[in-house]
Amino acid sequence: EAGVAQSPRYKIIEKRQSVAFWCNPISGHATLYWYQQILGQGPKLLIQFQNNGVVDDSQLPKDRFSAERLKGVDSTLKIQPAKLEDSAVYLCASRSDLAGTQYFGPGTRLLVL
Amino acid sequence: GENVEQHPSTLSVQEGDSAVIKCTYSDSASNYFPWYKQELGKRPQLIIDIRSNVGEKKDQRIAVTLNKTAKHFSLHITETQPEDSAVYFCAASRAGGENKLTFGTGTQLKVEL
């Protein structure tokens, strides 16, 4: 079974620029999550999708972050404009409806200068 | 919301010894408790999980115990090996894992030869 795919793996931008990350979940997984992992900390949920609907975006900084999951498969996460404190690894995870396990992608490591 | 505390933040053991990592959670509605292992620069990988209707679960050298009354769960690794060296995260979730995972702050385990 193919895992969760993410791209790009690394991104370096300057503050105030915009950036977008892409995630392709495991085939058939209806639930998709975006987490932010700051160095030395555990992942923190940004947004959760069930198919193409948002379940939880309570911790998403909506003034600069946006996410979508058109057609209920792939998802993109965008930051505009980026701040220094957005430097982190952005992890995508997916989960099937049949089990509680969330499977993580390799992450996108973002550095904002 | 849920708050998960994890101790210790670093743990150094000799090869062959046992390692124990402890977590407490605050939300009595949480009922799914996974443990993830994250090697440097890699994705978090599930190593074991437990649901609130079970007090203990074991998988070869790894075991997890849950005390719902005390809102406390622990990871036990026996006969540690150098390849066990990594950061370990506990997490808690409602609805059997369907909801977001709230992660602990992580434990850096180092197994010394």
Can you offer a commentary on this structure?
The complex is a heterodimer of chains A (113) and B (113). With 113 residues, chain A is mainly beta. Chain A is built from no helices and eleven strands. In chain A, strands 2, 4, 5, 6, 9, 10 and 11 form a seven-stranded mixed β-sheet that branches. A four-stranded antiparallel β-sheet of chain A has the order 1-3-8-7, with no helix packed on it. In chain A, strand 7 and strand 8 form a beta hairpin. Chain A is globular. The model of chain A has no long low-confidence stretch (mean pLDDT 93). With 113 residues, chain B is mostly beta strands. Chain B has no helices and eleven strands. Chain B has strands spanning 4-7, 10-14, 19-25, 32-38, 45-51, 56-59, 62-67, 72-77, 86-92, 102-103, 107-112. In chain B, strands 2, 4, 5, 9, 10 and 11 form a six-stranded mixed β-sheet that branches. Chain B has a five-stranded antiparallel β-sheet with strand order 1-3-8-7-6, with no helix packed on it. In chain B, strand 6 (56-59) and strand 7 form a beta hairpin. The mean pLDDT of chain B is 94. Chains A and B meet through strand 5 and strand 10 of A and strand 4, strand 5 and strand 10 of B.
